[in-house]
Description:
Shape: rod-shaped
Oligomer: single chain
Largest sheet: none
Structural class: mainly alpha
Strand content: under 5%
Number of helices: 2
Amino acid sequence: MTTSARHIATILTVALAGAGLTGCGTVNEKISAGVSDAIPAWAGGLPADAPPRPGTVQYDEFMRERERKRLLPASERGEDTKPAPSSQPR
Length: 90
């Protein structure tokens, strides 16, 4: 059986595509968190009121404020911390 240039080109193309696909998995794992923050909410990104990501300074401040509000008596909490009424009929 003879190997022609067409067979070699096909094998190289398949090998290159396979190597490219394996590289996509590691690249996407590392940059997906940063890219998802850049997507606007109207295009399916994070909403404006989403909490910050864990491990950031903003997250630590968010958690401290959340804990402070949790320790306040219910009468002193703002309207924004009240649970939403359930829409289930009884």
